[in-house]
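ok posting inputs for the 2-keto-D-gluconic acid job
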Amino acid sequence: MAARKPKVIVTRKLPDPVETRMRELFDTELNLADVPMSRQALIAALQRADVLAPTITDRLDAEVLAEAGEHLKLIANFGAGFDHIDVAAANARGIVVTNTPGVLTEDAADLTLALILAVGRRLVEGASVIQAGKFDGWSPTWMLGRRVTHKRLGIIGMGRIGQAVARRARAFGMQIHYHNRKPVSSRIAEELEATYWESLDQMLARMDIVSVHSPHTPATYHLLSARRMKLMQPTAILINTARGEIIDETALADLLKSGAIAGAGLDVFEFEPKINPKLLGLPNAVLLPHMGSATIEGRIDMGEKVIINIRTWMDGHKPPDRVIPSML
Ligand code: 8YV
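and the output
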């Protein structure tokens, strides 16, 4: 007799091919209406499931995980970042946590470059002039942005996505600088002609563009504090496609308003989906609704990774993308 299929509860609507495959392979409960689960609904799911496939919109803290049923053995996160999951608390209950690294690297890097260009070249401001019917004709001194070529790009967090951003930025003629817990291998440093800054403060003071690519951890919470952002040059721009919590948003909004920082491109926010009202309406801020991995291909690949992690676990092997607290 075939072994019982594991009960997999998926907390949000996933791309159709992913859902179809999951239904073939597992005893899958989908969320076709895509309504984000309340805390109560999440607890009920944790009590029924063998495997939970959550997303960033599910807060799986120690309190919620304490309610998990004894069957729950795997949390197969749909997404690379896992700061919404208390991994230590899950592991302490014998629950394995996996994520989906690698498959969204290129999409996140593309969006980062799009934001660098959008902020530097004032794309959203220009487009809104057209939409408002206010384009009166070309002028030599109107709507001037700043060139990106030959500018210094300071990358905070030189992991997969940071490196993918660096490769693209080089094609645009930018010079690569980075701050990381440790320097990258000499092979990568040579390939990218990247300059390592042990001191974030010193790097910030010298960059034209700063882009955040580190995970959100206790150590990176408000890493870009008011004090640090004040070190930046008034002509500099700040990009964040990583996690909102890494930047003190209120301080950033004040610096953008006073002109102490020239511009910002943000795809992530501290209290998503709430946006700090001080950021709204600033002409020098380009704000996007967490679209870094939002491509059809990326989201299908993420789903594939979730499936592979569940299948390997089902087959009694260690899932390839296990996350452990010491990774933070
Ligand atoms: C995902 C992300 O869409 O993977 C991540 O860490 O930030 C996003 O691009 C989201 O996490 C899905 O859960």
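notes: The mean pLDDT is 97. The domain at 7-103+295-327 is CATH 3.40.50.720 (Rossmann fold).
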